[in-house]
Amino acid sequence: MTILAIETSCDETSAGLLEEKNGKLKLVKNVVSSSVLLHAKTGGIIPETASREQLKYIIPVIKEGLEERSIKDVDALAVTYGPGLLGSLLIGVETAKALSFAFNKPLIPVNHLMGHIYANWIDQELEIKFPAVALVVSGGHTDLVLLQNHGNYKWLGGTRDDAAGEAFDKIARLLGLPYPGGPIIEKLAQDGNPNAFKFPRPMIDSGDYDFSFSGLKTAVLRESQTIKQMNSESISNICASTQQAVTEVLITKTLSAAKRFNAKSILLGGGVAANQKLRDDLKSSINGSSELFIPPKALCTDNGAMIGAAAFFLGKPLPFRKLHANPQLYFD
Ligand code: KG4
Ligand code: ZN
Q1: Is the backbone peptide bond immediately before 180 cis, with ω within 30 degrees of 0?
Q2: What is the Cβ-side half-sphere exposure of residue 286, based on CA atoms within 13 angstroms?
Q3: How many CB atoms lie within 10 A of CB 248?
Q4: Integer Rg of the chain from CA
Q5: Burial degree of 328 (CB within 10 A; 0-12, 13-18, 19+)
Q6: CB 263 near ligand 1, within 6 Å
Q7: In terms of CB atoms within 10 Å, which end of the chain has fewer, N or C?
């Protein structure tokens, strides 16, 4: 079975091609065109700019995605239909509908958040055992989900305000650093002291699976206003201390959910999962009762392949006329 999957929920235009062999998903091609450099100029995403870029790149990206195969070899199409920016989602959804109609291919709508979780199944040699606890950490979402099986899941909790990636992006902005904040904070944190500032660990002991990161942003703002001469050393220290606070909260809550639900597997996904400190610290905190799965970095940030993987395991094709983009889509 060959799946061509399209992802355009935000500022990446992507087409992924996956093949299933003996129940395993093999990545054939994953083409990602990002408009992130344009957004760096404006310090964040302007939705109109993002959707115009989607329109510009969707056809070349799909063409490149199909370089090694023909559309005739494709058994099913998959597309992100939410959550995301409406204008961006529409480009992918309407293109997928047109392809489904023109080439008479089944079309599988995919929840972007499920895509981040299912990135873990791509080129995966090991069996991912259930129950599994998944932490989705992206620019728009921070969620803990319990998966009992494919298609049988329960949302455990999520952020009450800013997502982890959003906190990185906003903190970077207030420090005068470019968008997106996560990668630059990670880079500068390498030269900083993670204990230089004792920033809050919001909701770390709340006993539930919710998160809150907006207070952290305010704490960083206040602290930075007290620094007389901001220099590269103080910026690095703020970055390292911010990264420490965010990763500590994410890891504590994930491990507590894994323990409570006897998770055999812990799955990480989303753009923030590309953060090396989060990857390393989570790995070293796991006590052995759960197996940890983290996708390669290129499959953590938005991409088409992860949408194809979710479609493969959860796929329910829909007649193209019935498919509509849904920017507010969440976990059911
Ligand atoms: O999943 P994603 O590509 O898009 C959304 O679905 O939102 O995530 C983007 C988010 C941004 O907030 C970005 O700052 C963050 O992921 N991010 C990182 C890293 N790379 C991307 N955060 C921390 N460390 C990174 N290396
Ligand atoms: Zn995403």
Answers
A1: yes
A2: 21
A3: 17
A4: 20
A5: exposed
A6: no
A7: C
| pLDDT score of 135 | 98
Residue 316 φ/ψ, nearest 5 degrees: -125, 100
DSSP 208: S
The rounded distance, in Å, linking the Cα atoms of 30 and 306 is 9
Ligand at minimal distance from the CA of 274 is 1
Q: How much distance in Å is there from the Cα of 269 to the middle of ligand 1? A: 10
| Nearest ligand 1 atom, CA 116 | 1
User: Which ligand 1 atom is nearest residue 165's CA?
Assistant: 12
The encoded tokens of residue 206 equal 């709340």
Residues of the chain with pLDDT under 70: none
Instruction: Say if CB 139 and CB 179 are below 8 A apart.
Output: no
Q: What is the position in ligand 1's atom list of the atom closest to the CA of 163?
A: 12
pLDDT digits (tens, 9 = 90+) for 113-158: 999 999 999 999 999 999 999 999 999 999 999 999 999 999 999 9
For 110-139, letters b (16+ CB in 10 Å) and e give bbbbbbbbbbbbbeeeeebeebbbbbbbbb
State the distance from the centre of ligand 1 to the C-alpha of 69, rounded, in angstroms.
31
**Could you tell me if the CB of 270 is within 6 A of ligand 1?**
yes
Longest dimension (CA), the chain: 65
